[in-house]
Amino acid sequence: MYYRQSILFFGLVLPGVLAALLVGGAFYAHQTIDTKYNTKNTQYISYKKNEQNVAALEKELSSKREHAARWKSLFSEETKSQINNHIRNLQEALPSKEFQQTSTDSPITTAGFGSASAQRSAQIRLGFRGTYRALQRAFLELETRMPQLQMQELKIDTGINQSNLNNVEVSYTAWEN
Amino acid sequence: MSSLQHPSTLNELQRYRQVSSILRTTSRGRNKAWFQEALDLDAQVHLRSDGVSIVSQFYSRRTNEWLEGPSVSSNVLTNPEGAANFADQLIQLAKQHRANALGVLLYIADEFAIAELKTEFDNPSLLTELRQRAETNPSEILEGASTFSDSQSFRILPYPAGGETIATAIALSRQDAAFLDTLRLAGEEYNFPIITHALSAPLIALMAVPSAARPTADKPFLTILYYSSFTVMGFFNEHGDLRLLRTIQHRGQRKPLNLTGIATTTLAALEFADPDILVLPLTRHADPTIIVELQSKFPKSRIDTVDWTKTPYNHPNIPAHCPELLIATKEADSSTTSFSVTFETFANEKWAAQNFLPPIPEIAQIYPTKSEVKLLRITHIARAALIIISLLAVTWALMDTWKKMSQPAWAFQPTQASNVQKKSASLASERLQIEHWDNLLEDRSKAWASMELLSRLIPENSGLLVKAFNQTTRPETAVGKSKASFIKEWRITGFAREEARDKLNHISSREGINALFNEVAQHTGNDAFRSDIGNRSILVTVRQQQNSTFKADNEATPSDGNSYPLTFELQIIQRFEANDPLALTTSKAP
Description:
heterodimer; A: alpha+beta; Alpha-Beta Plaits; B: 590 residues; alpha+beta; Nucleotidyltransferase, domain 5; 35% helix; rod-shaped
């Protein structure tokens, strides 16, 4: 039994230790690379997701940018002068017997929708006299050209027994930039 | 073999290299015969030397066949060159029989000596220790130690029946050891196991007494093993147990001198009366007068000479005076083991078949034991498994690493992410701005749409005449909330004829007002009038009264209020909750 100890040591223990070192070293290196890869992969996945989001967002916004640019140009002009310009055009387009402006007022105090939002706004109060259809057409024209107008009050007095003209008072909150 | 050294002279690494070399260059790892006894091998050569001639027989254990063995001259045992040639013959013979090993059994029938055990060792419990010490250091346990030399080999033989003496020792010279060493060495050189075993012929012959001599039951008996140069006397008691072994050297005579005298005194000492006297002739030239002498000396005893041809130990190819070959190769049957404790012990513990000339321990220890070879082979397998597992593990790690390093993610640079993040943040901010303005510009309250509502609510010639229309839209304060709810309220006053009552009632119902609002939404495209969005609620109240200015005799013109018998007041309240798509964003543009 002279060889048992050397067989156990050189045949089993030493190869076992060497194998453990080799495998352990390989696994350690693998683990290090794996950790690095996982970090990079997480960043890469996030990057790809962001890239996709950016592409989707870009696609979504490209169709809205035109409108946004138009809105921006609208908001850059003074509300009152815009309204006056549009009403002047309306008066030129509509017969004077059917559509007349009776009053214009710009209260300083914030009211209506303007009071519920932190967004800057202006108050406009307008008075008109005219036929029902002419007035409705005028409002359609005005509110289409100035989508920033949010109506908060509309009063129509039909003027029964006097004529077919209606007296209208309307007040708006106009959003400003 | 010449390069091999005794492991005690080597360090651990050298030992491992030596044992690995032995396993690699010899058949010890593959041929288990290296670790078997000669009597257990399939191919055996039996040599019996009685000082006069040498009998040689080949025995196939597998087929139980005895064939004539290789020719052997009388001086082969003492001539090294002759021994080497004989070894070559043996290997050729074994290969002819397609054997993977050869057992060589040497029956020493030309000498037999007895030594007595020191009295302090007459303790049956020491037998195992004595058996070992007789081989390694006999002078410590035997009487007459000063006369011993290294040229003798001793083996203990017990007297299992007990008595004053528990055992005796058999001594043989080592004169044939060199011959057997030469055979084993040849086996090592040819990488072919030659396993040797030197037996004492008389001890083997003794095992045949119960079945060959058939002693009378319950009667003591004396066996006389009659060899060419000596005679061995075995004294057995009435139970068949060996009490004493004695030997008489012939000293050049054909028969033992003073046999009857020694027998008489010994029998008297042992107090055996008229025992059976059984003569076992084990020489070709046995002197028959010995029987006459015994008969005259022991007239009341049964005196028999064993005729080996009439015993189970008879074979046509084997001389009759050499029954030891057949005795040794035949498994002891029940007639032997049940005869007495002595024979049972001798057979089971192999006392009679002890090897008197084993390999020198210093030579034998050079080679690994069977368990070490087995261990070495296991470690080779384990090491191969370790290498495979390690390679697989490393390969897997490398492949997985390569796979990961070839992914686009591995080449990814964090600066790319920051660019995209900046762009994403910029676009998100832009979207927030657009959404903000989108919300503020929603068509939640438009004058032209309200007028469309009025015209559809009360068309011309419907029996209703509107006097005044008033709409207010007021948001509800939402402190700390992102969206604000709001309420739209319409108040319409006017005149009504009797036939318009149903219309007013219809409008005041939930179905009626919802239908009207949805109709307006459909025609104007204004979602504020839709009742199927969000959690919007509409409340309608109608109040009708007698018209105090009604004049029944007036001509009924649609625009004259005095021609209407009734007045009405219609109130519609529509509520938009904070979760409604049209709810107002409360924050400033980002």
